[in-house]
Amino acid sequence: MTTQDSPKPSVLIVGAGCWGLATAYTLASSGYTKVTVLEKDDVVPSRFSAGNDLNKVIRAEYADNFYTDLSVRAIRKWQTDPLYKPHFHQNGFLNVTSESAPQATKDVVTNYLTSIRGHPAFEGQVSTVHGAEEIKKVAPAFTGPTAGWSGYFNKLAGYAHSADASKAVYDACVKLGVNFVLGRDNGEVTELVYDTISSRRVCVGVKTRGNQIYHADKVILALGADVPGLIPQLGPQVTGRCWGVVHIQLTPEEARPLRGIPVTNVRDLAFFFEPDEATNKLKFCHMGGGFTNFALSQNGLSLPYEKLEDSQFIPLDDESYIRKLLQEVFPQFADRPLIDKHLCWFADTIDSDYIIDYVPDTNSSLIVLSGDSGHGFKMLPIFGEFVKEILERGSQNIAKWQWKDDTKQKSTGTWRGDTATQELSKIPRA
Ligand SMILES: Cc1cc2nc3c(=O)[nH]c(=O)nc-3n(C[C@H](O)[C@H](O)[C@H](O)COP(=O)(O)OP(=O)(O)OC[C@H]3O[C@@H](n4cnc5c(N)ncnc54)[C@H](O)[C@@H]3O)c2cc1C
Ligand SMILES: *[C@@H]1O[C@H](CO)[C@@H](O)[C@H](O)[C@H]1NC(C)=O
Ligand SMILES: *[C@@H]1O[C@H](CO)[C@@H](O)[C@H](O)[C@H]1NC(C)=O
Question: For the FAD dependent oxidoreductase domain, which residue ranges apply (predicted)?
Answer without folding.
Answer: 11-387
